[in-house]
Amino acid sequence: MGQFQLYFQLGIKHILDLAGFDHILFVIALCAIYIGRDWKKILILVTAFTIGHSVTLALATLNLVKVNSNLIEFLIPVTIAITALVNIFKPKASTGRGVQINYFFALFFGLVHGLGFSNYLKSLLGRESSIFQPLLAFNLGLEVGQLIIVALFLLASSLLVGLVGINRKEWTLVISAIVLGMSVMMMLETKYW
After folding, report:
1. Average pLDDT for 36-60
2. Is Transmembrane helix given among the entry's keywords (predicted)?
């Protein structure tokens, strides 16, 4: 297996890891206000998250940024909770500020999430002569993994809202409330306290 493929698969596994489902929750929180026809907006959100994630992974790998890992493990569920809360209080995608704040969340909170995996990736990349290709492969794997999450979520959303007839606003509120509850539990379980 080549180096690119190895890191690509590592990126996919990282984002789809059910043991560390924080990324899955965040992607679901970002997507909760959208439906299938909003796929372009969702693609931009997911890519913004990957860009933010990539920036801090690169900075941490190059030892340009160092942050307390316990703080980051606390901040990751905070970002999820904030996103879910915004969904609850403004549960409909709009062409105005609602969408803009989601883009901000995706990019800025992606920076925080990237720091959460940086120590592990830094230890792996420490053995590599160049970090550019492994970082690119890893981040492309992240993007593919996120698109898998988005596709599954949109499929479930389309089935329940479109075919079964569940109210879209209620769907958004229920999903966001579940994500909020899980993120609060994650905050309480961190070693930051």
Report:
1. 88
2. yes
Question: For residues 116 and 73, is the Cβ–Cβ distance under 8 A?
Answer: yes
User: What pTM did the predictor assign?
Assistant: 0.89
What are the distances in angstroms from CA 102 to CA 15, 165, 173? 19, 26, 16
Q: What is the SS3 string spanning the chain? A: CCHHHHHHHHHHHHHHCCCCCHHHHHHHHHHCCCCHHHHHHHHHHHHHHHHHHHHHHHHHHCCCCCCCHHHHHHHHHHHHHHHHHHHHHCCCCCCCHHHHHHHHHHHHHHHHHHHHHHHHHHHHHCCCCCCHHHHHHHHHHHHHHHHHHHHHHHHHHHHHHHHCCCCHHHHHHHHHHHHHHHHHHHHHHCCCC
Using CA atoms, how far residue 34 sits from 145, 155, 173, in Å, is: 19, 12, 12
Average pLDDT for 90-95: 59
Could you read off the pLDDT of 96-105 as tens digits, one per residue? Answer: 455 578 888 8
State the pLDDT at residue 71. Answer: 92
